[in-house]
Design a protein that fits this description.
An eight-stranded parallel beta barrel has the order 1-2-3-4-5-6-7-8, surrounded by six helices. α4 runs parallel beside α15, α14 runs parallel beside α15 and α17 packs antiparallel against α18. The protein folds into two domains: about 350 residues, Radical SAM ThiC family, central domain (TIM Barrel, Alpha-Beta Barrel), CATH 3.20.20; about 60 residues, no CATH class. By secondary structure, the protein is α/β, with parallel strands linked by helices. The longest helix is centred in the C-terminal third of the chain and has 21 residues. The chain is about 50% helix and about 10% strand. β7, α14 and β8 form a beta-alpha-beta unit. The mean pLDDT is about 95. It has 19 helices and eight strands.
Length: about 425
């Protein structure tokens, strides 16, 4: 029996190789997984032309996944450097790479990713159209916007962020809202500007059915972009954000009618006390489609440390329903990230994802923590290094400050609580001051 997409197969009762791989990775019954894919609650981004893909499932009932944004810009145009970041990100456990290149020969880099990288590959066609056509924004035609979507699908991209929730009506509402930080989405700002310059409807909204046909042909998952995501905590949960979310909910239903998989993009900047409610609203409006969040960043005052503000928000968001965390690096708002920035962003996001998996009671999630605490109890330093989320850093820190005794560290020395309780429980003397 033939199928067009993972969702189409699931609805026909077909277990695909991708479903088998995901079920095995998640320690999940494959029939249960198939049903959730059929319902749209799990997405398996897997373009038919991405032949080296290692498939992953994205859904709140699965392990929380991490996306890493990379790509060239006008100021940083070294493809080898960006490819090195990609491979390092994959080695560090990132399940997804999103190519946000905005300058240079983007097609070469994109095809290299889909031919060589096993991670899920995502793109934002709006960015690439501006680069590819290399002409005034207002001169890009509706046909040309759609042609870029088709090109990315042909190149093997597994998911695309399409900013189709901001149409003429929502744009008018945005202009009346007097937002504190306006539109901070790069793709959202581009398509808003195009609509204002041309007086035309957003082609991604107006010609949505054509986009669905492309996605159906290549099995591309739609990541419905949030052009009106809040760019400051002052704008969190405002009318433009929620109104766009309602539109994305309607577009989700239309995609599912064509057997096209969908993810919904979310905030942005949001204070701690609003995150849980925002996740619940999304699940209701978008009928349980996987939620993909950038952060959310829980405060606006930490440039240089936004990987921390995002990890705090990401852990809470994933605990209450987000399935996919877009990493944020220390360089967010400041520059294109370096390789070290990428590493710090990935580690912060992985900590957030794992903390959420433990909090939501995902079977087996806390086993890793149990092993680490057991290694600490036994003062087994090598085991602790092996289990650490960043083994290299853990080893380096201990090497840089060598203790007098192997069974201590330089913070507590022979006052180490673990060491001394172990000795007492074994019936030994405690030699703190000797």
């Amino acid at each position: 029996m033939e199928y067009t997409t993972q969702m189409n197969a699931a609805r026909k009762g077909i277990i695909t190789p991708q479903m088998e791989a995901v079920a095995s990775y998640e320690n999940m019954n494959v029939e249960e997984l198939r049903k959730l894919v059929a319902e749209g609650k799990i997405a398996i981004p897997a373009n038919k032309n991405h032949t080296c893909l290692k498939p992953y499932g994205i859904g709140s009932m699965l392990k929380t996944k991490i996306n890493v944004n990379l790509g060239t810009s006008r100021d940083c145009l070294d493809l080898d450097v960006e490819l090195a970041k990609v491979m390092e990100a994959v080695n560090m456990g990132a399940e997804s790479i999103m190519d946000l290149s905005s300058f240079g020969d983007t097609k070469v880099f994109r095809r290299k990713l889909t031919q060589e990288c096993p991670a899920i590959i995502g793109t934002v066609p709006i960015y690439d159209a501006v680069v590819y056509y290399n002409k005034a924004l207002k001169s890009i035609t509706s046909d040309e916007w759609i042609d870029i979507v088709r090109m990315h699908a042909e190149d093997g991209v597994d998911f695309m962020t399409i900013h189709c929730g901001i149409n003429r009506d929502t744009a008018a509402r945005f202009k009346k809202s007097k937002r504190h930080t306006n539109i901070v989405s790069r793709g959202g700002s581009i398509i808003f500007a195009w609509m204002e310059l041309t007086g035309q409807e957003n082609p991604f909204y107006e010609r949505y059915d054509e986009i669905l046909e492309i996605c159906q042909q290549y099995d591309v998952t739609l990541s419905l972009g949030d052009a009106c995501r809040p760019g400051s905590i002052a704008d969190a949960g405002d009318i433009p954000q929620i109104e766009e979310l309602v539109t994305l909910g309607e577009l989700t239903t239309r995609a599912w009618e064509k057997d096209v998989q969908v993810m919904i993009e979310g905030p942005g900047h949001m204070p701690l006390n609003q995150i849980q409610a925002n996740m619940e609203i999304q699940k209701t409006i978008c009928k349980g489609a996987p939620f993909y969040v950038l952060g959310p960043l829980v405060t606006d005052v930490a440039p240089g440390y936004d990987h921390i503000t995002a990890a705090i928000g990401g852990a809470i968001a994933a605990t209450y329903g987000a399935a996919f965390l877009c990493y944020v690096t220390p360089a967010e708002h400041l520059r294109l990230p370096t390789l070290e920035d990428v590493k710090e962003g990935i580690i912060a996001s992985r900590i957030a994802a794992h903390a959420a998996d433990v909090a939501k009671g995902l079977p087996g999630a806390a086993d890793w923590d149990f092993e680490m605490s057991e290694a600490r109890r036994n003062l087994d330093w090598e085991k602790q290094f092996d289990l650490a989320i960043d083994s290299e850093k853990a080893r380096r820190y201990r090497k840089e400050s060598t203790p007098e005794r192997e069974d201590t560290c330089t913070m507590c020395g022979k006052m180490c609580a673990v060491r001394n309780i172990n000795k007492i429980l074994r019936g030994e003397d405690v030699d703190i001051m000797e």
